[in-house]
Amino acid sequence: MPPSPENIIDVNNILNDSNEISLKKSRFTPHQWKLFIILIFVNLCSAMCYSIQAPFYPKEAEKKGVTSSVYGMVFGVFEFVVFVLCPIYGKYIRQIGLKFMLNAGNFVMATCCILFGFLDNASKTSFIVLSFIVRIVEAMGQAGSMTASYAIVSSEFSDNLAFALTAIETAFGVGVFLGPSVGGLLFEFGGFLLPFAVNGGALMITAIVTVFLLPENENANPKSLSLLKLLRIPSIVVCYYTVFALTFSIGYTTVLLERFLKSKFDISTAIVGLVFIVPGVIYVPSTFVSGILADKYVHPMIICAAGGALISIAFLFLGPASFFHIKPTLWLVIVCLVLHGFGLGAEYIAAFINCNKEAIRHGFPENIETYGLISGLWASGWALGSFIGPIAAGFIGEADGFQNGTLVICGQHILVVIFSLICFWYQKKNLTEKEELIELLEELPN
């Protein structure tokens, strides 16, 4: 029996509404500009809090007789706490309150950053115990701040998601790269306390400003959404694996690349530092270009597959793999790191855009609960790769060396390519079937 005319009219109205939405101008309102600037400063300062101690904390810990494995765990526990807490924060983001989660996270991070500066006065045992406690509490704050930031971007900038997300992520990336440089300079100038006092103070000021500028949450009854239901969507799982794999690759190079460069090439520490920033420099334009393509022109999973292919090629020749029998050269390393940067940007932005689109397509409401759930899951995947990557790199480096270990990264991203293409085919197939059904309904007489 054919559907009633009323049902056909409803379908046409939905189609017309969707066309009107797609024709909206993608411009920031004054409210959006205010949020955008707040999030830029919050992510810049919070990233610097996370990375500022990298140049001098290990040396100070060794002066107190702390081994590298122990102070390495001080760094690693931060990512582990973020990995555990982000999905929980995301699930209960409405109950906790978006504004409260962001502000509380910022204040906790700022306070812990300042407190960390006083730890050099403690004895060996107290130094380690307090380092763990402060880093764990600081990670609790950053988990809340990250989850809230991604949720705000997804909910408030849905028409400009690629641009807004890329800008926020760029600010965080700049903070991660800038933190060690600023921390090293301030440490040389004023000792252990100064880097933490300056950066913690800057984040505290940003947090205070955020209290007054960030609008209150909209009044709505919170609805609990299931994380397991979200993870039943295959493409969401693929995107989670993608962000894990890309941060795993960053952790691998962070731990082993410096030793590889110095063992193979006669270059100074300054040159090594310049080589390290190559992926970060390339990552910024890659995220912008990939975001625009994934948001408007190319299916996000195709962008993910392209990013996975670039990273696979990069790590195949970064060593290069021993079965190629190619002598490593500095220019080849730099070219591979350029490809790595392009691949990171493509995978990251496209996978996040796809997560948002797929959740909505599978019936999740377009509200803060959904965006919070996705944001928490996303930040958790990032932290998991950042936590496991450096640890695995240590074992891989000792067992097989840098050159053969790169094949692990290569294999991970070949899987990204395969899974992304399968998801693209599946989503395209479902979309084609729906379009055919809509065309059939439109052809029926009114």
TrEMBL record:
InterPro entries, sorted: MFS, MFS_dom, MFS_trans_sf, MFS_Vesicular_Transporter, Tet-R_TetA/multi-R_MdtG-like
Transmembrane segments: 35-57, 69-88, 100-119, 125-153, 160-180, 192-214, 235-255, 267-285, 297-318, 330-350, 371-393, 405-426
Chain segments annotated as coiled-coil in the UniProt record: none
Annotated localization: Membrane
Alphabetized UniProt keyword annotations: Membrane, Neurotransmitter transport, Transmembrane, Transmembrane helix, Transport
PROSITE patterns, alphabetized: MFS
Any GO MF annotation of the entry: transmembrane transporter activity
UniProt name for this protein: Major facilitator superfamily (MFS) profile domain-containing protein
Organism per entry: Strigamia maritima (European centipede)
Lineage: Eukaryota, Metazoa, Ecdysozoa, Arthropoda, Myriapoda
